[in-house]
């Protein structure tokens, strides 16, 4: 029988190394559409999966840059939600926490999580597509109209096109960050997979690595995913509903954790 929420809270209270993997679902309640939600408005003629490729950028850089600038403006207009805040709170409650995200929105950091392994980069750190040098953004973008093409700026060093600092399909993940995420998955005793469709590799392999190494894998998602058959516990619901309740039951209701700051 899967453990109840109270038993899971007890596992959380006494865990040694908590590993949290998040996906787009954790930001959904901040008003940011998930990656596999249909695009809306003027973007609805495109699929996110087709825009997030080096081939799309090569074919139509202004379309892809316009889409990312629109998304960056959207993210900057949103706030972290109760799920981001609960995760940030956990760093003070467990002996060791590794937070791994596939998200590029920066909301974990804005909620106060001090260290975040960003597997797929960040909307806020564009770089040159040719020489990879970082490009300094000069403040929030003017909100482009939905569907608006914007020519990407040029690199001051080599004249190459500036691109979003994210990892597209077919590109490799930052090796050092992936290595740290894989090491954490092998070491953790409790692994929470939150708000991810668990379809995109290598991130989707991390819970499998964790389970193989003996961690208890818990999933929080309102929908089904390929992880349903791996996770020892599937908490069906939204991240902002479930996480604060879990943290409260683990650390705040009993008052017996002994780990309060
Ligand atoms: C809620 C909720 C709420 C809703 N609360 N939940 C092995 C096997 C097969 C293929 C491959 C493989 N290894 C590599 C590949 C190829 C490819 C891949 O995985 N393809 C699959 C689609 C099959 N991977 C790659 O290309 C990666 N590179 C790589 O492996 O390099 C080496 C290599 C290259 C080529 C061949 C072989 C090896 C790179 C992957 C980069 C992914 N990049 C993107 C775009 C980032 C920039 C951007 O944002 O635009 O990252 S794609 C997109 O998917 C984005 C996301 O981070 C990522 C994951 O999506 P996520 O977060 O799971 O979101 P959704 O929308 O899918 O799901 C949301 C979930 O939330 C849903 O389940 C909802 O139910 C739930 N939810 N509301 C909680 N309130
Ligand atoms: Zn350059």
Written account of the structure:
The protein is an alpha/beta fold and 261 residues long. It has ten helices and eight strands. The protein has helices at residues 5-13, 25-28, 48-51, 54-59, 61-76, 82-90, 107-111, 175-187, 206-212, 239-252; strands at residues 17-22, 96-101, 117-118, 121-128, 162-166, 190-194, 216-220, 233-235. The strands form two sheets. The chain has a six-stranded parallel beta sheet with strand order 3-2-1-6-7-8, with helices on both faces. Strand 6 (190-194), helix 9 (206-212) and strand 7 (216-220) form a beta-alpha-beta unit. Helix 1 (5-13) crosses helix 10, helix 6 runs parallel beside helix 10 (239-252) and helix 8 packs parallel to helix 9. The longest helix has 16 residues, at 61-76. It is elongated. The protein starts with a helix and ends in a 9-residue tail after the last helix. The relative contact order is 0.20. The chain binds ligand BJW and zinc ion (ZN). The site of ligand BJW has 33 residues, from helix 2.
Summarize the structure.
By secondary structure, the chain is of the alpha/beta class.
Secondary-structure blueprint:
Blueprint: H1 5-13, E1 17-22, H2 25-28, H3 48-51, H4 54-59, H5 61-76, H6 82-90, E2 96-101, H7 107-111, E3 117-118, E4 121-128, E5 162-166, H8 175-187, E6 190-194, H9 206-212, E7 216-220, E8 233-235, H10 239-252
Parallel strand pairs: 1-2, 1-6, 2-3, 6-7, 7-8
Antiparallel strand pairs: 4-5
The chain binds ligand BJW and zinc ion (ZN).
